[in-house]
Structure formats: C-alpha cells, structure tokens
Amino acid sequence: MTGDSLIDAQKAPLVLVADDDFSVRLQVRAALEKAGFVVAEAAGGEEALALFAQQRPEMVLLDVLMPGIDGFETCRRLRRLPGGSDLPVVMITGLDDYESIHHAFEAGATDFIAKPINWAILGYRVRYILRSGRILSALKKNQQRLAQAQSIARLGHWERDLASGGFAFFSENPAGFGLCDPCHFEALFANILPEDRAQAQKTIEEACRGERPFSINYRVRLAGGKERIIHNQGEIVLDEVRQCRSMVGTVQDITEIKKAEEQIRYLASYDQLTGLANRALLREFWMEAKAQSLITGTKVAVLCLDLDHFKRINDTLGHAVGDAALKIITARLKSVLRQSASISFSGMEASSYILSRLGGDEFAILVYGIKSQEDIPELAYQIMQNVDRPLMIVNHRIVMSTSLGISVFPEDGDDIDILLKNADIALFEAKQKGRNTFRFFRQEMNEAVKAKFELANSLQNALENGEFVLYYQPQFSVRNGRLNSMEALIRWRHPEWGLVPPGRFIPFAEESGFIYQINLWVLEEACRQAQEWVGKGLLDGFLMGVNLSGRNLDLRLLKNSLHGILERTGLDPRRLELELTENVMMENPQESVAVLNELRADGISIAIDDFGTGHSSLSHLQTFPLNTLKIDRSFVQNLEKGRKNVDLLYSIVGIAKSFGLKVVAEGVETEEQLKVVRRSRVDDLQGFLFSPPIPPEEMEQALISKRFEVS
After folding, report:
1. Looking at the 3D structure of the chain, how many domains does it have?
2. Cut 0.85: pTM above it
C-alpha cells in the first residue's frame, strides 16, 4: 500500500507540526510525507499561530512543552482564530502524563498522541483523526444549514421518548412557538389558547399512546400578547428491530401562510373595491337560502340592480370618482338591508340576505325568508329612495337613480343562474320603461329575450348571406316636379319571414350595437349603386341620400370608413348626402360639428333628418353645418289637424330658408298635404303620394324611362 492510498482527498492535506525539538519534527515529517501528507513546521507556539493564519492547514500537531507559549495556550488561541473552531488539534504528550492529557482536552484539543510515537502507525492515526474531523465539520455545517432553514421556515422540532417520557426541543427560539422554559413535554401546551388547548393536548397524547401520526393546528399567545398559529405534526420512529421508541414532531409558525390563505379566499369570494360578496360567494349563499326556503315554505327573492347612466360619471368625472360613488352606494344598500325593521318581511332574520357586486355598477341582492311576494316592493322602493339621494364627491354633486329587476324562487326558477338571468331580463324591462323603477320577471319577458336573441343571430346571418337589400324612394322638386334626389332605405329579405321593414329590426340593431355594421353596408351598397347608375348616365345631377342611425354613432370613425367606401366605389362625394338625426349629432356636439365640416369640405351634403320629432330645436339649424332639413312624415301628417300646425310649418321653413337650407317634406300622402307643403315654400317632396320605396331594378327602369315627374 502506498502512502497516497491513505488519503481520501485528491489534494494532499497540509498538516502543521509544532515542536521545539528539531529531531522530532524531522521524524514526524518523514512519517507523514510517507503517508502522503504535506507538512509545515513550527518551532514554537507563536510561529505555529502565524503559519496557521498564512497557510490554513487542515490539522495541527502540537507538542505540550514548548518555549514561549506552550501547547495548551497555543490550542486555546487557535480555537479563537477564524477557521480554528472546528480544526483537528492533536496534542503530543508523555505516555503517563495524565494531567497533560486532561489539560489538553480542556484547552480544546481534539485528541492526543502519547510518546514515544509509533512512527509506523502515525500516518494511519492522523488519517483517522483528519477523517473524523472532516465528518464532524460537515455535520456541524449541516446542522447550521438546518438551523438556518428552520429559522427561515419558522420551524422547530421535538422528540419524545415514549418509554421514559423524556422530551427534547430543538430550536433557537422555543418561545417563538409558544413553549416555556424548561422545555418539557407539557411545555408544548402551556401557551396554547384555552379554546384550542384541550383538543391539541388530546390529539397529541392519544397519538403518542396509540403510536400513530398526527397533524393539528392551534393558536398560541406569546409574551406581549401576540397570537400566532402553529402547525404541529408528529410521526413514530422505529428502532432497528422495528420497535417503537420515540415520537418525533415538528412545529411551524404558519401565521403568515394562514393570512395568505385567508387573503386568497377573500379575493376568491369578495369584490376588492366594495368588499361585497362576488358571484361565487352568492352561489354558496344561495344553497343555504334554497334549503331554508324548502324547509319553511318561504320564498327567495333575487334583485338585480344597476345605476342609471353610470357610464357618464366615469366618462366625464373619471373612474376615481366613479369608484368613490360605488362605495357610497354600497354603504347605502347595506344600510337599507340592515334596517330589517323597515323591511316588512314576516319573520325575516337579520342575516337572511346577501349583497353582491356582479361587476361594474351591477349589484345583486338575495333575500330569503319571505312569506309573500307582496313584501318585496317595499325593499325595492327603499333601495331606489336611498340611491336617489345626491352624492358629494370631490366637490361634485352627483344625482343618480337605479333600476331593478326581480325574480322569485320557486316561481321563476330553481337555480341561482336562472334566477339571476330572469332578474336581469326584468331589469332590462325596467330600463326600457324609463329607468328609476323596478319590474318583476314575467315569462313573456323571457320569450321576448329569446326572440331578440334569435333576431340577433338572424341579423348576423343576414349580413353574411346577403339578405339585405336597398329600396330607393325618390324626391321631387316642387319648382318643376322633376326627380332630383333619392333616399336609400334598407329592407331585409328573410328566407322565412319574407320582406322585413326596417321598423322591425333597426331599433334592435341600434340597441345591440349591430347598427354600425349595417350602416357601413348601406353606405357601401348605396354608393356602389349610385356609381353604377352614374356610369349608365342615369343620375345626371341627382343626389343619393343615405340615412344613418344608431345610438353613440362614432362620426369620426364613420368618416374614416366613408373615405374608403368612396375610394372603392369611385363615387363623386358631391353626389352623396348623409342624413343624420338631431340625437346623433347632439351626443357629442363639438365632435359632430368638426366632423360634419370636414365632410362638407369633401363635397358631401349633410341633411338633418326626422325634424319635428322628439325635442327638435331650431337652434340646431344654426349650430351644425347643414345643407338640407327634412321635415318628418309625422309632422306633415298632422297638418290637416289644425291651423296651428300649418303656421308652425311655415315658421320652420322660413327659418330654415334664412339659414340657406334646402327643405324636404317627407311622408306626403294626400293631396291636401301636398297643397299645404307647396304653400310653405319647401323645396322637395317625398312620400307615398308620388312613389313608395322601390327595389333597384324598378328604380333603374324608371330612370331609363324618365317616368318620374310631379305635376
């Protein structure tokens, strides 16, 4: 066996030998180098300390008796140096010098070698001590890492001998886990809160007696009164013959984990802005409400409500103000529900409701324990009255109202999703009836919603399948009776329903937002058809009028789309007239004026349509850049009912003329109406008296034959 084989490490370990006897050092060097070690020599203690700081040997051999500082003092000083606490230090003493051996261990020596030294086994002895030192050092490092990991994880562990009852706890901070000093087994339970203590003690002691694992959480009160949540779990440890010897357990402070879990549960169940229950928690509450209702024979009411025109607050005052308003409304709704005395529900418990925010400004209230549906309107009235009260937010006085839809279990459904859907249908009905009111769900509402859903699908299919068609109604000059303009009007050729007039589907298209796509199709088709007739020489000087409808019509976006349409179809913009209602222009007056001026600059004519309906204002004739005013058919048809209507017509026409506008009378259907509008000095006539809207092929034949003329 060579000396190298004695060494485990690839790099030969450095051993420092400190002895004032040169001959001894020489012999030690020879024996250790033969065994594969590298040797450094020191003639005394001071020199040994200096060499240790410079070379960091893995082991030190110290003679006890040396000049200056002896081996004992040298050992003590080594232990205080960085890296010296775990260093293997071997003292060389006389064989019978028991006192020196005692002092050596007191000074911190790892082991001793007696003189005379057996040189043949010195290398083996050093190798064994060095290996043991390495194992001890690794064990200590692992213990340090374990202690640090347990500290980070807020973890400690304990062990109990089941035979003797002996107990040991291992942690740098037993008090942090609610243990008192001394750490005996009973200390585990000393600071557990009284309401948790009995169960914890019973669980752990029964596990020890029954020799089975356990896991339990409990709360402890630390010094200063702070409470923490502790997780304690233990398992049985078996000896080599698989006999039960001890129970080993861990304790962990899981307070922060529990807080995080609670936060996660909160986020999963509650709305962050208002703190109200969300839809998931509402469903959980519903199960309890349904069970109670079935037992007691009472009813459950589901109220869906939202704030009327809430979007305007966000759009005009900002979302911060909107959020503040939602919090105030939440507090008011809670107040109404808490005051159960003012809600005349027979036998209603204080906890028999839940208030939930479903999203945006939409809330839901679930109330159970209701004996009669007649009790519910009182709650609805109180909610509306409380929401109606003005709010003051950042110097803004805000007045809001709310609309409610109500469904009732078991009449309107036996599932919360069905009840919410039906309440939402009733809410829509309340808004359709003017807002700031409530409606109970009725089955016919559901049928209407289904019909609208089918209509929505049919509208989408109509556009994709080319079911829409344009009809054209001519306009005639009062001055010479000739055709000089026409209005494109959409019709729907449904494969099952036949020809559908716009009055049946345009309102729904406006409500659903589908009107924008319809508007674009009408513009494209009207411009394409007009350009085709221009190419055939049939639209000499004529205007193609296109009526655009829809709430929240984005005129800027429409203008950009129109440029593309005119470019694709090749139609001269001067042959196009856009017909817009006052309501469309008044949704954003400043934007409307800017866009309409740009369109007029491109050569497109602008007409105000349906004038005389709703809240028509003559001031709008001056506000907006217009070319034409079209008097609504309902106004024309009222001319025969009295002189006052005729005088009003004359006034409107006169003012429009003063602004330089062309005036068109729509809906002329009788000779009497024709006489009146002619005397009013209108420019053009349009109505069934002259021609109904006709399909494009019939209009083309009329243009070719030039048969249109009013006498």
Report:
1. 4
2. no
